[in-house]
Amino acid sequence: FSRLTLEDTSRDELVEMGRTFNDMIALLESNYLKQEKFVSDASHELRTPLTVIESYASLLKRRGLTHPELFNESVEAIHSEAIRMKELTEQLLLLAKHHEQWDLSMKVVDLQELATASAKVFRNAYGREVTVNAQGEVRGFSDEAKLRQLLFIFLDNARKYSDEAITITLGASGQESHIVITDRGIGIPSGELPRVFDRFYRVDEARGRQGGGAGLGLSLAAEIAEAIGAKLSMESVEGAGTSVMIRIAAENRGRQ
Ligand code: ADP
């Protein structure tokens, strides 16, 4: 993009117009570059599982019939990489569509029911113990499906980056309700904490890579939180564990 230069001696309106034009260009450039980076990062992430699928498929083609012992390992690898690609594509599709275009249905949600059902899913799917602590009934005003998705992102991270029990604590204070997800896992170094919500950011590429994350979970969480009006805060101690708090309105305070 080329910039418009106007002499300061020009008429005020022209100088003003020049400034507006340049601001607009700067905005366009930043969005353009961001988008370009997004596309190249996304392509890079999709290429990794595709390469694995391609090499196992070619191995099967060349030696599958003569070496039956290769069969299980190859099919297993192709299957798990395909699942990873599917999850990644779903995350990318959600992120590509700005949250203002999402269909939301805000209503009063029973948080205890939501937490208990989510804990059950995690127990069944991953064999991980998830304890729910709540004193009495806790309700929140939210889009139920998106809130569940938000909770799942944090539970999934708690599962990937810890080996011990995960806790969900529910509570309310004043007009606000909260959901806290706590793990006693590897934690996040304090200097990294502000960056973990960035797209494709991972604290350490080596650790937990087998979990298969692409560093998109938390950026999606931030997007969902903005859409449903939830506030997120994260505390972590390296080597001790991580705790995430989701705060939402206890009831509908806005206009219908
Ligand atoms: P990923 O798919 O890599 O898990 P996320 O966006 O969900 O991506 O998280 C970004 C990074 O933040 C992770 O790669 C991990 O290093 C760190 N992280 C997130 N949650 C936790 C947690 N509960 N414990 C330790 N590290 C975490």
From TrEMBL:
Q: Which domain of life is it from?
A: Bacteria
What keywords tag this UniProt record?
ATP-binding, Cell membrane, Kinase, Membrane, Nucleotide-binding, Phosphoprotein, Transferase, Transmembrane, Transmembrane helix, Two-component regulatory system
EC category name: transferase
Q: What is its EC number?
A: 2.7.13.3
Keyword Transmembrane helix carried by entry = yes
Recorded catalytic reaction(s): these are: ATP + protein L-histidine = ADP + protein N-phospho-L-histidine
Q: Which residues form the HAMP domain?
A: 1-33
| Places the protein is found | Cell membrane
Q: Which residues form the Histidine kinase domain?
A: 41-252
Q: Name one GO molecular function term.
A: kinase activity
UniProt topology in membrane: Multi-pass membrane protein
Question: What's this protein's name?
Answer: histidine kinase
Which organism does this sequence originate in? Paenibacillus borealis
Coverage of the whole protein, first to last residue? 199 to 454 of 454
